[in-house]
Amino acid sequence: MEERKKILYGSFGIAVFLHVVIIGLFSKTQVLGLNALVGAVLVYVLWRATAGRRAALFVSLAVAIVIEAIAWGVAWYYEQQVTEEEAKLIRFQAPPPILEKNFDLAKQPEISEVQMEMLASLSPPDLPTDINAIADVSAIGSDLLGAVLPGSQVLGTFSGAKAEDLAFDEVEMIELTETAAPVQEALSLKQELLNVQDLDFGRYQAILIQDPENKRNIRGFFNMSVMDYDLANKSTDRFPTAVEELMRYMRDHTRINARIEGVTLRLSDSQIFKEPFLYMTGNNAIFQFSSTEEQNLGEYLRQGGFLFAEEIRHANSEGSLEGSGAGTAGTIFDRQFKALMKDENVLAGDGARWQRVEKDHPLFSSFYDFGDGPPKGGAPGGNVFDLEMLELRGRVAVIFSDLNISWFWGDPNADARERGLQFGVNLIVFALTQPGGIANVSQYAQ
């Protein structure tokens, strides 16, 4: 009896194991065949092991078959549902064509024969191949030319010259592209005849348009900014009216609409990166620049900025500069400024390569001519006679002065003041037109 139970239980366990394995590894058809085979073997073993109690065996088999059928029915039902859902998900319906576009496609017009005949009748006759036949006409004969060539337009009056002697003005043809909506393309002052003053809306701080034929025929606008720093004394380290007077002189004597921005700028202000020209003066102030300000100054100069810095001296109550120490090297401002330029956060080694601005430098002929170099009337008795400059990749980034040129701008009683104002114009024009500067607008005026 015990031996039969072992056979019974073992057979049942093996059957269940094989059933699970078969379901997991084989397809539906294979599962059905293998399960039938395993079931037949199981029935045979159970038949042999249940002698005398076969009624219970039949009941158990019936229950197992019913449960198996239910399981297969449920599996089949859910399989059908999944298949139907997958079929729905993979259906693709093409979207309707998009008729609205950002541009219009040029189509070949459909013209009827009647329209073609009408257009042919409106076309002007072909011009003669020999232009000499029509070019040798007088001013009176120009009317006859209009009668001979109906539909043509005579521009100006004919001189009676032969065809090979006629001179025609050069005309630039601009190819236009048609779009559904107007599009703002590249700015071209030359082709679109824009008024440069129309560009003075805050995006640009300066734009100058030069005339290759005449350096004085320069037009544009310029918004100047003054650099401020801690411990700068307005009465000794600045000429409060210098920039305002220089801007007024530029407006009166050039075609440049020059003005000063209403506020001074600190190096911590990101606005400096839009300024093409920075102006800085000092006398006995002590520099205290943060690392951020130093880094901003270095980045500004490397990105095309221009800085004019000057050590200044004010005249006494009688308007004289005698004994003021103007125009001397090694002053407090001189030493501090040059140390600032060669600081690691500013220009490092490039900030120590000072050069003298020679008398044939373009600075001295950018607008007015200064054959003898910069004006020296603001530094009587001094030991400095030239300006100094720092170049970055061939572009002048910094000009330093010990010559007190700002005195000409800010003191209405300065001797030979106009010459100093003219040099201020040269400084600005040179800085704004040299290649590589922030205000170089050659890309806008091709």
Question: Could you describe the 3D structure shown?
Answer:
With 446 residues, the protein is an alpha/beta fold. It folds into two domains: 2-89; 189-444, Rossmann fold. The protein is 37% helix and 11% strand. The protein has twelve helices and eight strands. The chain has helices at residues 2-25, 28-49, 54-89, 113-122, 132-135, 141-148, 189-192, 242-253, 291-302, 332-341, 406-410, 417-433; strands spanning 206-211, 214-226, 255-260, 278-282, 307-311, 355-356, 388-392, 395-401. Strands 1, 2, 3, 4, 5, 6, 7 and 8 form an eight-stranded mixed sheet that branches. α8 packs across α12 (417-433). The longest helix is centred in the N-terminal third of the chain and has 36 residues, at 54-89. It is rod-shaped. The model is unreliable at 99-109, 131-166, 176-193 and 441-446 (pLDDT under 50).
Structure summary:
37% of the residues lie in helices and 11% in strands. It has helices at 2-25, 28-49, 54-89, 113-122, 132-135, 141-148, 189-192, 242-253, 291-302, 332-341, 406-410, 417-433, and strands spanning 206-211, 214-226, 255-260, 278-282, 307-311, 355-356, 388-392, 395-401.
Q: Specify the CATH class of the largest domain.
A: Alpha Beta
User: What is the number of strand segments?
Assistant: 8
Q: Assign the CATH superfamily of the largest domain.
A: Domain of unknown function DUF4159
Q: Quick one: biggest sheet? A: 8 strands, mixed
- List the quaternary state of the chains: single chain
Order of helices and strands: HHHHHHHEEHEEHEHEEEHH
Tally of helical runs = 12
Secondary structural class: alpha/beta
Low-confidence stretches: 99-109, 131-166, 176-193, 441-446
Q: What integer is the average pLDDT?
A: 76
Portion in helices: 25-40%
How many domains? The number is 2
Q: End-to-end span in angstroms?
A: 110 Å
Q: Which geometry do the CA atoms define? A: rod-shaped
Beta content comes to 5-15%
Proper CATH architecture of the largest domain: 3-Layer(aba) Sandwich
CATH topology group of the largest domain: Rossmann fold
* Gyration radius, rounded: 47 Å
